[in-house]
Prior knowledge:
This protein has 292 residues and is α/β, with parallel strands linked by helices.
Amino acid sequence: MLWRRNLLVPLAALALALTASTGAGTAAAPDTTVAAATPSASAAGDFGAPGPYATAVEVGAVTTLYYPRDIADSDRRHPVIVWGNGTGGVPLVYRELLLHWAGQGFIVAAANTPQSNLGISMRAGIDLLTGRNADPGSVFFDRVDLEHIGASGHSQGGAAAIVVGADPRIDTILPIQPGPLADINAVRVPALLLAGQQDSIVFPALVRAFYNAADHIPALYGELRGADHFTVVGDPGPFAAPTTAWFRAHLMGDQAARAQFFGPGCGICADTATWSDVRRNSLALGLPATTA
C-alpha cells in the first residue's frame, strides 16, 4: 500500500543512521546504558518528566527489553508495555520514548521486527517475560506484573497494537498514528488513539475512523497540534506525557494520571495548546476521574 511504501524509506534510513552513530544493535548482550535516577514528577502531573528509575536495555533476537535497571532489587512488580515499530523501523528508532516509559517503572518489550502488523512478535514479548518472571535465575524473577499489560506502537506498529488488543492478556491499547490494517471491533479494553495534526502519511481521518468504530469500548481520540508522522521518532516530544499518563492510569492505578482523561475536569480536554482535537465516546464519558 502507498502509506507503507512512503514510510519504509525514511524509517529504515533513520534506523541505520542511529545504529551507525550509537553502535547499538550490534550485539545480543545486554546493553547496560542507564539514565540517572531522578525524583519522579508524576505526582505533580508532569508525566513528561523523567521517572525515578535508572534504566537498562537488553537486546535479544526477537525482543528488546527496556526496564528499570535495579528491577531484581525492586520491592514491587512492574507492569508491561508491548511495542510495535513502524514499517521498516526497529526499537532503536523509538529508544527515547521506550526508555522514558522504563524510567517510569514499566517493562517495555519491543518487538524487533520491522513488519509488526500481525502482532506475533509483540505477543512473543509477553511470553518471554512470562518465562523470565518464573525463572529464579533471571533478574525479572517475580518482578513482572503480568496482570497489567498494555500494547502500543507507531504507524504499522500502531495497527499491531490494535491487533494485539484482542489478546485477553492485554488491559489497554495506545495506538500512535496507526495504519489501517487492523480491526478494532475485536478489542475489548480501553483505547487511546493518537493522531498528528500534520500527519500526511496516516491522516488524522484514518485514526478517527478507528475511534468512530470503537463504540463498544471506552475510547479517546487525541490529535497533537502540529505533529507530523515522525514527531514521535527520536525525542518523543509531546507524545511522552500523554502516553505515560495513560499507561500509569490503566496499569498502575495512578489517579492523577487518570484525571487527565476522565471526568469533567479531563486534563487533555482543556489543553488546547497541546491538542488540536480531543474526543471521548459515550463509554469514556461515563467513567469517573478517580476510582479510589
